[in-house]
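Hi again,

Forgot to attach this to my earlier email, sorry! This is the prediction with NAP bound. I've pasted everything inline since the attachment limit keeps bouncing my files.
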Amino acid sequence: MSNLSQISSDRPLLLIGCGKMGGAMLQGWLKAGLSVSAVKIVDPYLKGVRELLPDLKEDCFAEKLSDLPEGLVPGFIVLAVKPQMMDDATAGLKAIDCTDGVFLSIAAGKTIGYFERHLGANAAIIRAMPNTPAAIGQGITVGCPNKNVSASQKAVCHDLLLAAGIVEWVAEETLIDAVTAVSGSGPAYVFHLVEALADAGVAVGLPAELAKKLALHTVSGAGALLAQSDQDATELRINVTSPNGTTEAALKVLMGEQGLGKLMGEAVLAAHNRSKELAD
Ligand SMILES: NC(=O)c1ccc[n+]([C@@H]2O[C@H](COP(=O)([O-])OP(=O)(O)OC[C@H]3O[C@@H](n4cnc5c(N)ncnc54)[C@H](OP(=O)(O)O)[C@@H]3O)[C@@H](O)[C@H]2O)c1
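Structure tokens for the complex follow:
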């Protein structure tokens, strides 16, 4: 049985920020069986939240933390606002009794140290790094707990993050910068691959619209095949590369000394360095 059953109306889940990510995760939690009575949502743009979740009762929503009912003691506080709004969100939380609760942040760049400074050194905090396919439940998220998080809090947060896709954990927070450089920023690398493949198709004579369509479906189809296959990327690549064929000719360029491996290494290193610079 899912650990989400540990979330109850006595110790509800408080979702702060119900935009693209918070909203998508909330829909996933409700689908996974989280009781509506066990959720409180705070977001200044209530019209959008109501449109997204027309079946939720009015007392589930509040525009501001200060509008929440008195005596509310949330057990799970999910922070899903933009990083630049996090100071406001954590300041508002000071008026709420979060005793024995766990804070789960999905905000890029906001470190465990940041939350300990704003919420107290004894606060149980999980910093998680999802990626954009999380909006359709196909992301991959890496979580990192601080020392105050109990095993049962971590188990519930694991199930909460499952709504965004696959979940992995690291004990070392510094690894989150590397995760950011690979999976956090990674979807943009794949989108750029589609752009580059389409441009290359145009260069060899294809009409632009057809080249775009071929590139998109080649990348999404190959990704779906890889995800469903028992074989890994290397095996699948070898299987489609006939000796002296067209694929081999292209891969000699892509896998050459100045090829994609070198470029990707430089790109990920640049993202890694930038992630360390931006950490707050
Ligand atoms: N989108 C992704 O795929 C993705 C991937 C990785 C990480 N993340 C992280 O996820 C977090 C949310 O991103 P998002 O794309 O979902 O952003 P978003 O769509 O802008 O959602 C944030 C929501 O929070 C609301 N909000 C702002 N200040 C608030 C406050 N003080 N209290 C409560 N709610 C408040 C915003 O309302 P207003 O619009 O009215 O300000 C908005 O509805 C970010 O920290 C981001 O780093 C997102």
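The longest strand covers residues 139-145. The beta strands are 13-16, 39-42, 61-62, 76-79, 102-105, 124-129, 139-145, 165-169.

That should be everything now.

G.
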